[in-house]
Amino acid sequence: MKCTVCKGPAVIDIRRHNANFCSEHFLRLCRDQVAKAIKDFEMLRPDERALVAVSGGKDSLAVWDILLELGYQADGLYLGLGIGDYSDASGEMARAFASARGLHLVEIDLPTDHGFDIPTGARAARRVPCSACGLSKRHLFDEAAREGGYDVVVTGHNLDDEAAVLFGNVLHWQTDYLGRQLPVLPARHGFPRKVKPLVRLGEREMAAYCVLRNIDYIVEECPMAAGNKHLGYKEALNAIEATSPGSKHDFYFGFLARASAHFTTEAEAEQQELHPCGRCGAPTPGEVCAFCRLAERATAVPVSLGRRAEASR
Ligand code: AMP
Ligand code: FES
Ligand code: ZN
Ligand code: ZN
Q: Whole-prediction pTM value?
């Protein structure tokens, strides 16, 4: 297998590009794809301060690395979600990456700072863990960016993630979500812009990127995510991609180019109706935001009791 660019020995093939790459040209491809996403969607300017949400996984560490390589100003943000050993191990990966490179990592710990962990919160609010987790993460990203004076929050969502979310939203015709499923969400109500610079790159490429750049990342998936719908959508799309390379890219970018605008009016109307949460100031359609309601219910249950109940399940 030869590199399509230099004819040297290739280390990876990318079927949707119908091309193979050596290490050097693969790393260049990853940087170029991120630079193109940033330019096409006007994600970030060099004079802006970005806060990269890092989970300790391959995608978010890779996007932090690539942004720095491209010359952007980027600090990291790690959220301790209180998901047992998984959180301990993922936090260590994020810290090790930052300290080896002398980077600034902001840390927020949900149990310490807000008095509950995700397993307890999900149970108390009768939500599936990933839903309690997702809403907590979005809230804490906003809060940390605002407190630190950052212009943009960067996440490591890649093409596989975005195609799977789109698949789920289309399957159930969640038109409100479809209107907001964009690689850039503009700043609003004093909250920072949110961007996803990895939308042109897949999961397999991000794993290869980390290996080639010697980035240690947590390989395990979150234990609470096992069996969730999102993983099922990914498997379904992988089966399609295997017989028809490029399908995920066409599905997602075709949606952005040809369909997404049909749904934005509904989403924008909903945004207009938001006002500040009476407790924390975050934008919400109700009086109190979903995070504050979750925190209220979760802290009504002592964390230690929640942990014990989890362990006995
Ligand atoms: P996930 O929701 O686990 O698919 O993660 C999506 C993105 O959210 C990741 O690529 C990270 O950018 C960010 N993220 C997930 N977990 C954390 C965490 N514990 N701390 C900071 N950022 C996170
Ligand atoms: Fe959120 Fe697992 S990372 S539930
Ligand atoms: Zn090459
Ligand atoms: Zn609130």
A: 0.94
